[in-house]
């Protein structure tokens, strides 16, 4: 008897430690004083949960979730941004988006940026990570230096690049000096070139991040595998192809996911280098740029909101599809299913 | 972009991610190293050269930049940096950036730690939903909802106020923080908590006396990401801050470069001084950030 009491006391204590968890542990008659203690413990736990998570949840709902809901609401109106929206147009804005050639254009640019980012940065990052994962001197310095473009803000990077890429800027001068004067070009405003210039800047800015991510992935592959393969007489390339690349899979898939989401929302760099108007003529405007140009710059807040909703839906669908089919094993449903 | 900058960490910080911080070099020691060094140097050169161009450009004269766009400073002049460092504009914007970054970081860490603690260490029905809510926040970057966000900020009277930047920044920093810290806090052994409970420590006491010190590495990672994210944030200040006196450095750089567009050297000096704090901050804590990547967040 004494033993059971002791055990019960212990569960009682633990249930205070893990509120709610006590339900499963140990049967207790509802009228017993212990149950009352537990009820009090649970009420206390509820209060703690509310106090600790309240501020975060309120802020998150107000400033992250609510704006998206608001955007969906404004998207149904023709609205110039002042006063309450009254001019209900139903799905009018969305119909307009479907037929808007400018939107089709920015959608195409965004898509191009998304695909090219994956195709250019992915293989290059894997190659560089394999290379840098070797025993070479100054690895930690290298890691810092290749991360520099990623850490420096878009404004700084954009300002620097737009100065360097002017027709009389440093790049053209450099080309002239090394005898490639024929390659001099109007990097920023030539509509045939500008999107490639943008791709170059994007790759430059974000490749370091990809490499660091891949390096981290490489370091999580157990040494034993390489050793075993070496003992079996596998060559360097065989090891990379049969062991490293497959095991790097999860890292590559996560990187690709982040890259896709980043591409879909690209804004800062384009806005700083080209601005809302020139980017349209230079052929570099993205969905986010068009949204801001329509909303903030042209005052078509209703239409801008509808574009925001479309962007959000595209991101959401891409994220869900990607999670469902590609990241299934890697994330264990972190986003869709929540904490296990 | 800054809102998404940190997302990778979060995804990789899953407790089930294999690996640790052990240094592994693979089985590649026989690789001819000159090629490796050559490619590594080339890569570093490409990464660093544009940044160096900005920094060195600040030491040049405008006429030299015009006549020799791609050249090293000749003569070296300190005047541009001096002018920026003695200008009230720069220091005012610098102070604004520091205030915004520090308060945002403290807010993100404090509120993020609190809610992560709840998700990681309490059992209640809505726990899974709460986690999903924050995780889904990764797909709500600031840019998408910037217009309604601005309208909300306007309605609570925080336009052209540093808090109009700080408060939304804290909210947007929470998803990353929660996703990094929850596995961290889950990893604190039950036994420690039970021992604390037996010693008569309450749950909140446990939170303050044990959780905060034990999760310090994760907190530092989150804090650095929050600080750099805030330092570099552009789109929110662009919408919220109207008057020059309230500008943060990213807005300042843009305003300065359009105001002094003919004085390229000074623009470059201003730009490089604006990026310096984030760079220094990053190089000091680089190990933490990259360590976070390899799953070392587990401490």
Automatic annotation (TrEMBL), chain A:
| Subcellular location(s) of the protein | Cell membrane
Chain positions covered by the region annotation Disordered: 1-40
- CDD domains for the chain: TM_PBP2 (cd06261)
Where in this chain does the record put each ABC transmembrane type-1 domain?
A: 107-322
Topology of this chain in the membrane? Multi-pass membrane protein
Q: Which Pfam families match?
A: BPD_transp_1
Q: Does the keyword Hydrolase apply?
A: no
Going by the entry's taxonomy, the superkingdom of the source organism is recorded as: Bacteria
State the signal peptide span: none
- UniProt key word Cell membrane: yes
Q: Which family does it belong to?
A: Belongs to the binding-protein-dependent transport system permease family.
PANTHER family found in the cross-reference section: ABC TRANSPORTER PERMEASE PROTEIN (PTHR30193), INNER MEMBRANE ABC TRANSPORTER PERMEASE PROTEIN YCJO (PTHR30193:SF37)
**Name of the protein this chain belongs to:** Sugar ABC transporter permease
- Source species of the chain: Streptomyces misionensis
From TrEMBL, chain B:
Indicate where this protein resides in the cell: Cell membrane
Q: Spell out the residue ranges making up region: Disordered.
A: 1-28
Question: PROSITE patterns from the xrefs?
Answer: ABC_TM1
Signal sequence residues: none
- Keyword terms of this UniProt record: Cell membrane, Membrane, Transmembrane, Transmembrane helix, Transport
What is a single cellular component term in the Gene Ontology annotation? plasma membrane
| An annotated GO BP | transmembrane transport
Listed transmembrane segments: 35-56, 94-119, 131-153, 165-185, 206-228, 267-285
Does the UniProt entry include the keyword Transmembrane? yes
Q: Residues in domain ABC transmembrane type-1?
A: 94-285
Report membrane topology. Answer: Multi-pass membrane protein
Q: Which domain of life is it from?
A: Bacteria
Does this UniProt record's set of keywords contain Membrane? yes
User: Pfam families, from UniProt?
Assistant: BPD_transp_1
Q: Which family does it belong to?
A: Belongs to the binding-protein-dependent transport system permease family.
Q: What is this protein called?
A: Carbohydrate ABC transporter permease
């Amino acid at each position: 008897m004494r033993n059971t009491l002791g055990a019960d006391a212990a569960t009682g204590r633990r249930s205070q430690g893990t509120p709610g968890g006590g339900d499963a542990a140990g049967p207790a008659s509802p009228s017993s004083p212990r149950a009352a203690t537990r009820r009090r413990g649970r009420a206390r736990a509820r209060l703690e949960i509310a106090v600790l998570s309240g501020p975060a949840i309120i802020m998150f709902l107000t400033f992250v979730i609510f704006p998206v809901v608001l955007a969906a609401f404004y998207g149904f109106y023709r609205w110039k941004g002042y006063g309450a929206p009254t001019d209900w147009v139903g799905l009018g804005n969305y119909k307009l988006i479907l037929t808007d050639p400018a939107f089709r254009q920015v959608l195409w640019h965004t898509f191009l940026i998304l695909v090219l980012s994956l195709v250019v940065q992915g293989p290059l990052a894997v190659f560089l990570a394999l290379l840098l994962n070797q025993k070479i001197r100054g690895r930690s310095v290298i890691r810092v230096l290749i991360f520099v473009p990623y850490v420096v803000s878009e404004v700084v990077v954009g300002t620097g690049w737009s100065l360097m890429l002017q027709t009389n800027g440093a790049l053209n001068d450099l080309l002239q000096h090394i005898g490639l004067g024929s390659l001099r070009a109007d990097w920023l405003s030539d509509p045939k070139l500008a999107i490639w210039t943008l791709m170059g800047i994007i790759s430059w800015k974000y490749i370091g991040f990809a490499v660091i991510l891949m390096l981290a992935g490489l370091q999580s592959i157990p040494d034993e595998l390489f050793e075993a393969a070496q003992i079996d007489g596998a060559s360097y390339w065989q090891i990379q192809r049969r062991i490293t690349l497959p095991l790097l899979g999860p890292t590559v898939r996560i990187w690709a996911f982040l890259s896709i989401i980043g591409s879909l929302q690209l804004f800062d760099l384009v806005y700083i280098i080209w601005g809302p108007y020139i980017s349209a003529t230079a052929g570099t405007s993205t969905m986010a740029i068009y949204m801001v140009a329509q909303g903030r710059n042209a005052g078509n807040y209703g239409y801008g909101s509808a574009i925001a909703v479309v962007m959000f839906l595209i991101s959401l669908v891409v994220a869900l599809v990607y999670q469902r089919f590609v990241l299934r094993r890697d994330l264990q449903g972190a986003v869709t299913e929540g904490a296990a | 972009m800054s809102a998404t900058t940190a997302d990778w960490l979060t995804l990789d910080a899953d407790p089930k991610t294999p690996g640790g911080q052990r240094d592994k070099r693979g089985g590649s020691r026989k690789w001819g190293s000159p090629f490796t060094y050559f490619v590594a140097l080339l890569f570093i050169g490409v990464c660093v050269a544009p940044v160096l161009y900005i920094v060195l450009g600040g030491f040049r004269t405008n006429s030299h930049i015009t006549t020799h766009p791609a050249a090293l400073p000749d003569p070296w002049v300190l005047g541009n940096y001096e002018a920026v460092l003695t200008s009230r504009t720069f220091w005012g914007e610098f102070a604004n950036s520091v205030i915004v970054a520090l308060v945002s970081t403290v807010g993100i860490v404090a509120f993020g730690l609190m809610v992560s603690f709840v998700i990681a260490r309490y059992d209640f029905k809505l726990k899974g939903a709460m986690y999903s809510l924050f995780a889904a926040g990764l797909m709500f970057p600031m840019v998408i909802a910037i217009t309604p966000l601005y309208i909300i900020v306007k309605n609570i009277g925080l336009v052209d106020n540093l808090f109009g930047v700080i408060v939304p920044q804290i909210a947007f920093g929470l998803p990353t923080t929660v996703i990094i810290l929850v596995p961290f806090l889950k990893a604190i052994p039950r036994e420690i908590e039970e021992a604390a409970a037996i010693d008569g420590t309450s749950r909140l006491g446990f939170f303050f006396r044990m959780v905060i010190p034990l999760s310090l590495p994760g907190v530092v990672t989150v804090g650095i990401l929050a600080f750099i994210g805030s330092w570099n944030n552009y789109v929110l200040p662009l919408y919220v801050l109207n008057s020059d006196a309230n500008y943060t450095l990213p807005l300042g750089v843009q305003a300065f470069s359009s105001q002094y567009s003919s004085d390229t050297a000074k623009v470059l000096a201003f730009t490089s001084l604006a990026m310096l704090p984030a760079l220094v901050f990053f190089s000091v804590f680089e190990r933490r950030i990259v360590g976070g990547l390899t799953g070392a967040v587990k401490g």
